[in-house]
Amino acid sequence: MNSNRTFTMLKPDSIEQGNMLPILNMIENAGFKIIALKYKKMSKDEAEKFYSIHSDKPFFTDLVSFMTRGPIIAAVLEKENAVEEFRNLIGSTDPLEALDGTIRKKFAKSKGENAVHGSDSDENSSIEIDFHFDSNEIFS
Ligand code: UDP
Ligand code: MG
User: Fold this and answer.
1) For the chain, which domains are there?
2) DSSP character for 108?
């Protein structure tokens, strides 16, 4: 059965470029309910842990320094079939491949600095939500 929750981050590029509210608007307009929200800066340790699945990739060092150079917005989103629906809304990792109407098509500048994160499975959404939020910070 599909979970009705997913996890997202608005990455530092989105905040720097003043796209925080337009992106949150797109998320709400697509029918997601924001049930938790946090404005924070990740430490190097946190970013390395969050992206540990990519630790052996050539882009890992750049990814960690990008994700820690400024604040992010972390959020938990609720919608039926949330993980898949949100991956559809954000579009491909590389904005050149992202479809019209997706967040990355509209706001991402490159494959690395691509505006938003979205969980890729129910298992990972649960891990990522727990990484950033206590249960009493989620308002379902
Ligand atoms: N990334 C990168 N170069 C790549 C692939 C990924 O810099 O060739 C970065 C990018 O910020 C991406 C993140 O690493 O969003 C995680 O990669 P993943 O393949 O999980 O992409 P996503 O699930 O975010 O679409
Ligand atoms: Mg991923």
Assistant:
1) 5-137 (3.30.70.141)
2) -
Q: What is the DSSP string of 44-80?
A: HHHHHHHTGGGTTSTTHHHHHHHHTSS-EEEEEEE-T
How many CA atoms, within 13 angstroms, populate the side-chain half-sphere of residue 17?
16
Q: Is 117 a catalytic residue?
A: yes
The ligand with the least distance to the CA atom of 57 is 1
Q: φ, ψ for residue 37 (rounded to 5)? A: -150, 135
Predicted structure pTM score: 0.98
Q: Which of 117, 122, 129, 132 is catalytic?
A: 117
- For the stretch 79-133, pLDDT in tens is 999 999 999 999 999 999 999 999 999 999 999 999 999 999 999 999 999 999 9
